[in-house]
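Q: What residues go here?
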């Protein structure tokens, strides 16, 4: 299905739903949402109800005069629009609605946050030819977007984008090294590694949500293949142990303990710094309040004192306030403390594994890296300036920033095939026909360029799928 047809078909569906003859459809949709929301959560039953409702509504579309003479592509777009509207309305009711799912999400996220501190591609038997951690960052970013969307299709697009980036990188690496095209044995380990490094939010609940509420007739072909691989990656991470990542048991436990200590230390330092800042601010406010009260009393009782005495009092007050503010640690103090902590650690290099180009030479860079270098530089400067301001310091100069920061960059592949899922922002438009029947229609707040690109993810031609 062409992307232009997807765009036109979806908006044609919205226009048809405004017609008076669509009143029965609108009433059925609204009635289903209300009755469904009134029931207690039951994932298996809920999934069956949604799948059955979507199937019946799509069958009704095909038989209705509003879609008479329409192509299969237009009817497909109508089904996509229906699924998106219904599931956006029911999202808070069905997503992570069971305490057990929430618990698994937390356990899985905690496990990935620990393992990502020390796992290397070699631990998953990824060949050096296929190792490209810098470019894998793009795949990680796609996976981390999954909680930005509510519709099952949009969440699935995030997974497909991640998998497509990995697949393209592996294919390019095999061509460059004259090796056989990569298969599942090469793809899955990289997906597992990327998933651990990305640690996407509520991964377990997101996968269950797609599995339960994505229209089953559309979860096929390439989409089904990549989604199945993501389910395998989740299962692997859930059961990960020393043996599964080619590591000695003692080394694995040591690394896990180190990761716990590292994350615990970062959390403790953050809380301590926050509490210290709050205390210092409170002391400063109290000091100034006491000083103002004292000044009023002095002004009312000794207005005849000389200007020299008043000047002395002001100097003394300035010194008092300055000593109070001095309690706030400076940016340099925090950096020096962090540097000392790193030097004391046996595995200090682990802290820099997220920045593979920290020690890169000029000759390692290419012209394609400029855009990402600039973007990351801007982000680092913004964060650094905000941190300095938050600590009560002055805005650092350009030379100061360069003295403290090394630029991290991501090598972004232009041919990665990434597609942005459509925006979840929607508005409800209520219209009234001649007979007084209310009609509720959703409109999507997206640009036509991004809308046209969406169809490329889930509806690729069979020939392209076979060639890959």
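A:
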């Amino acid at each position: 299905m062409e992307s232009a047809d997807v765009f036109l078909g979806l908006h044609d569906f919205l226009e048809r739903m405004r017609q008076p003859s669509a009143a029965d459809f609108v009433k059925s949709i609204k009635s289903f949402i209300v009755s469904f929301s009134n029931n207690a959560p039951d994932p298996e039953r809920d999934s069956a109800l949604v799948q059955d409702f979507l199937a019946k509504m799509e069958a009704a579309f095909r038989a209705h005069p509003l879609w008479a003479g329409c192509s299969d592509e237009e009817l497909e777009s109508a089904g996509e629009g229906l699924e998106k509207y219904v599931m956006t309305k029911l999202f808070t009711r069905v997503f992570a609605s069971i305490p057990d799912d929430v618990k698994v999400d937390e356990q899985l996220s905690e496990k990935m946050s620990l393992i990502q501190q020390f796992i290397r591609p070699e631990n998953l038997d990824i060949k050096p030819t296929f190792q490209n951690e810098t470019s894998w960052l793009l795949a990680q970013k796609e996976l981390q977007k999954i909680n930005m969307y509510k519709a099952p299709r949009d969440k699935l697009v995030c997974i497909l984008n991640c998998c497509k980036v990995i697949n393209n990188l592996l294919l390019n690496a095999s061509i460059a090294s004259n090796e056989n095209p990569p298969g599942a044995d090469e793809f899955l380990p990289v997906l597992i590694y990327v998933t651990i490094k990305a640690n996407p939010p509520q991964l377990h609940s997101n996968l269950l949500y797609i599995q339960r509420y994505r229209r089953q007739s559309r979860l096929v072909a390439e989409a089904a293949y990549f989604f199945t691989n993501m389910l395998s990656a989740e299962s692997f991470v859930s059961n990960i142990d020393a043996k599964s990542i080619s590591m000695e048991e003692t080394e694995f436990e040591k690394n896990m303990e180190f990761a716990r200590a590292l994350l615990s230390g970062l959390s403790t330092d953050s809380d301590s710094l926050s509490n210290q800042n709050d205390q210092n601010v409170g002391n400063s406010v109290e000091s100034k309040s006491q000083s103002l009260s004292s000044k009023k009393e002095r002004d009312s009782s000794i207005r005849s004192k000389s200007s020299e005495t008043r000047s002395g009092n002001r100097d003394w007050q300035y010194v008092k306030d300055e000593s109070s503010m001095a309690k706030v640690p400076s940016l340099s103090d925090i950096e020096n403390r962090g540097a000392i902590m790193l030097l004391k650690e046996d595995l200090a290099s682990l802290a820099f594994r997220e920045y593979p180009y920290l020690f890169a030479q000029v000759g390692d860079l290419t012209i394609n890296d400029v855009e990402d270098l600039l973007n990351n530089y801007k982000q680092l400067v913004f964060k650094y300036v905000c941190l300095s301001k938050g600590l009560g310091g002055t805005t650092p100069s350009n030379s100061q920033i360069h003295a403290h920061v090394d630029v991290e960059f991501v090598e972004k592949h232009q041919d990665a095939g990434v597609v942005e899922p459509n925006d979840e922002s929607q508005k409800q438009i209520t219209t009234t026909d001649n007979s007084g029947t209310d009609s509720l229609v959703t409109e999507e707040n997206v640009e036509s360029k991004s809308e046209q690109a969406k169809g490329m993810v889930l509806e690729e031609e069979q020939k392209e799928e076979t060639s890959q």
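A: Context that may help when evaluating the design: The longest strand covers residues 426-432. The beta strands are 426-432, 438-444.
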